Amino acid sequence: MQPFKFIRAQDSHAAITAALTNNAKFIAGGTNMIDLMKLNIEKPTQVIDINGLKLDKIEIFSNGTIRIGALVKNSDLAYHPTIIKSYPVLSEALLSGASAQLRNMATVGGNLLQRTRCPYFYDTTYPCNKRAPGSGCSALNGYNRNNAVLGTSDKCIATHPSDMCVALAALGAVIHVQSDSGVREIPFNEFHLLPGETPQFETTLKHGELIIAVDIPAIAYGARSHYLKVRDRASYEFALSSAAVALDIKNGRILTARVALGGIGTKPWRSLAAEKVLMGAVNNEQSYRTAAEAALSGAKPYQHNAFKIELAKRTLVRALATVGGMS
Amino acid sequence: MSDLLNQDEKPHRGGSTRREFLTQITMAGAGLSFAPILVKSVTPTSALALIQPVKVNLMVNGLAKSLTIDSRVTLLDALREGLAMPGTKKGCDHGQCGACTVLVNDRRINSCLTLVAMCDGAQITTIEGLAKGDQLHPMQEAFIKHDAFQCGYCTPGQICSAVGLVKEGHAKTDANIRELMSGNICRCGAYQNILEAIKEVQTT
Predict the structure, then answer these.
(1) Which residues pair with B79 in a beta bridge?
(2) Mean pLDDT to the nearest integer, A11-34
(3) What is the CATH superfamily name and number for domain B138-203?
(4) Pick the CATH number of A5-52 from 3.30.565.10, 3.40.30.10, 2.30.30.40, 3.30.43.10
């Protein structure tokens, strides 16, 4: 691990000021970053501990918005009674990720910035445009079974690893970030970037900006939601494919739907195409299947991951059927 | 590692100087004229020169501990090497196996993915702190009773994780327990007996 100066920030202003130094990184849970630092993939020269910033509250406003502090632990959010009751998709997504220990450490803000688990990103002996821009993508013609089929480019096909982010994408969360010039809000869909020509840039977060909270705007039918994750092991494994769905159903018709997919995209993949198909459709399996076809219509398979396209469709159909069948 | 953890060590730029190093290299290279070019990128620095010390106060198993320690040191290494408490085990060192599980402020975490610098003021409980004198913790008793280990390397982490799981109170079924213990790998495969041990403690 590269040496670094460790700073305990007492408040967000101090944290942001310290972060303006070149090559500074915030640390919260550290579950991903310390791993990457041990592997010399992340090499900050200044690490700012933000755990003292008191951003660990979950607030519920009178308009129904839920504000989740950036330092709320994944386990605390997953087991929060309001989240379990009103947005089971988020609770289920969180509990499907990592292990109990890691969920006790990992924060909401950190989870938003989780890095890919593409093996070529982790193995520093391989070229990787995300880790070493311009060096090439080893996954394109390498072993790419776990790589993405949506949102890829010829520079990067790394899968976004987060489960939580897939649920937050479906819920249309809003990310609050603070800098020395104030606070701004970023709609969830505008937070993560597609790899394009520059896979080293993963979010629209700017240098010196600190994530302080995530808002979930009220969704009346949020209780009719579900997260389904398909993976190689029954637990403690990243998704091959996953689906976060919520349905508003009346008299056998779907009024509104929220659909996001995980494990198959280079970013948490909200599918407005699938939502459009479902809006006004009869609540039956045929509609689910049509929506799944729409969601994966732009998918591009690579040598070892073509199976993911059908798997993702079936994952979505089953998740929709689960919610569609709820009383 | 002991260098990184010495409580009294002042960091300094030290060790052999660049000139001394160059001299050694040049001598070793029998006076090859390009030797200085070759070593230009490997300006020698001693390990001590890289240390960025941080002061940390911890309560470990009820005892106050104060360390001035390199910022890179994990809680796991601080416990094992700095505080001479090797009960917490290093397995994968990447948060994948759970052997390093300890309780921080009563919550189970992976000590290998936590910098000790992040634990200032925290209460740490390790496997060494579960028993009260000669009286084993009920989870330790249950692991022995149910033969919940074979080689024993994962056991401190399994027991600390199981204690955390019972405190959390979310495991209602066998499937829940298995799921919520999935962060602790046992390559001997004692899972069935670990399950039985946890169930016994949960119901008593």
Answers:
(1) none
(2) 96
(3) [2Fe-2S]-binding domain (1.10.150.120)
(4) 3.30.43.10
End-to-end CA distance of chain B: 43
For chain B, the three-class secondary structure string (H helix, E strand, C coil) is CHHHHCCCCCCCCCCCCHHHHHHHHHHHCCCCCCHHHHHHHHCCCCHHHHCCEEEEEEEECCEEEEEEEECCCEHHHHHHHHCCCCCCCCCCCCCCCCCCEEEECCEEEEHHHCEHHHHCCCEEECHHHCCECCECCHHHHHHHHCCCCCCCCCHHHHHHHHHHHHHHCCCCCHHHHHHHCCCCCCCCCCHHHHHHHHHHHHHC
Query: Is CATH 3.90.1530.10 correct for A226-324?
Result: no
CB contact under 8 A, B110 and A6: no
Give the pLDDT confidence of A73-85 residue by residue, as tens digits.
999 999 999 999 9
Does B95 contact A31 at a Cβ distance shorter than 8 Å? Answer: yes
pLDDT attached to residue B13: 40
Distance from CA of A154 to the nearest CA of B (A): 30
Mean pLDDT of the B5-26 span:
39
Chain B residues whose beta carbon lies within 8 Å of the beta carbon of residue A105? 109-110, 113-114
* Three-state secondary structure call for residue A7: strand
Please tell me the CATH superfamily of domain B54-129, with its number: Beta-grasp domain (3.10.20.30)
Is residue B54 within 8 Å of B70, Cβ to Cβ? Answer: yes
Strand ranges inside A118-272, DSSP E: 174-179, 182-187, 210-216, 225-230, 241-250, 253-262, 269-270
Tens-digit pLDDT profile for residues A88-115: 999 999 999 999 999 999 999 999 999 9
**Over the stretch A203-234, which tens digit does the pLDDT of each residue have?**
999 999 999 999 999 999 999 999 999 999 99
Enter the ipTM.
0.96
Nearest-Cα residue of chain A relative to residue B184: A99
Q: Which helix H or strand E contains A58, and what residues bound it?
A: strand A58-60
Contact B101 A31 (CB under 8 A): no
Cβ neighbours of B71 in A, within 8 Å: 3-6, 47
Can you give the C-alpha Rg of chain A in angstroms? 19
Cβ-Cβ contacts under 8 Å, B114 against chain A: 30, 34, 105
